[in-house]
Design brief:
The structure is a single chain. This protein is mostly beta strands. It has two domains: 97 residues, no CATH class; 104 residues. It is 7% helix and 38% strand. The chain has two helices and 16 strands. It has a 16-stranded antiparallel β-sheet, with helices on one face. A hairpin with a 5-residue loop joins strand 12 and strand 13. The N and C termini lie far apart (63 Å).
């Protein structure tokens, strides 16, 4: 089944379809069906090997009788990878990778459905929470990087707003996810020279300016 998983992971970049995944050979595995939502419809199919270990689980998450999530496991039952069609259009748009211990390592996602990965989410192995996400919002390479605290809350973001390949905005966040401060590089020297602070309710606070070029605000208003 590991070969099966590798095939699927390669296929996602080429726009793997639910039909292609469903057509794979599972004849050597025992099939178990479940109705996990209690609506009277089967929505989960598990495929179990001779050692009573699940090697593949297929799920229907929107009750349309079509599989939209595939969870792959090693013959020993350790999580190996996960593929999902999160917008239910019949094409895989998300894949999740695990390490040899079955811990989440990285998630790749095609958010704009153009067949190319544009989001890379990295996990903290100790907690399983997000640690960092890289986003390609314009199709020209990563232009946003978001960092998270250990508990999974957003801490800060670095952004290339003008698409020149260099960070020109630095954003910190309140615990509620709203911006706390945004630093702007308007002189293209790689350092912020204008800062806008925000209150926890989202309203604007003070604005700061670096008038002597040392990268620190020396004037507030």
């Amino acid at each position: 089944m590991r070969v099966l998983a590798i095939f699927c992971l390669c296929g996602i970049l080429a726009g793997a379809s639910a039909f292609e995944l469903a057509a794979q050979d599972k004849s050597k595995l025992f099939k178990e069906e479940k109705d996990t939502t209690g609506d009277g419809k089967i929505d989960t199919w598990s495929y179990i090997n001779n050692n009573s270990k699940i090697e593949l689980t297929e799920s229907d998450n929107n009750s349309d009788a079509l599989v939209d999530k595939w969870s792959f496991f090693t013959p020993e039952g350790v999580a190996d990878s996960l593929l999902a069609d999160t917008d239910f259009d019949g094409k895989v748009d998300t894949r999740l990778f695990f390490n040899e211990k079955g811990e989440k390592v990285r998630q790749e996602k095609d958010a704009d459905n153009n067949g190319k990965v544009d989001q890379w989410l990295y996990y903290d192995l100790a907690t399983g929470n997000p640690a960092k996400i890289e986003i390609d919002s314009k199709g020209k390479g990563v232009d946003q990087t978001v960092y998270y605290l250990v508990d999974g809350t957003k801490e800060r973001m670095e952004q290339d707003a003008d698409g020149d390949g260099k960070v020109d905005r630095w954003i910190s966040y309140w615990p509620n996810g709203k911006p706390k401060e945004i630093g702007y590089d308007t002189t293209k020297d790689g350092k912020p020279n204008v800062w806008q602070q925000y209150n926890e309710d989202g309203s604007k606070g003070k604005a700061g300016f670096d008038t002597d070029g040392d990268g620190k605000p020396d004037k507030w208003q």
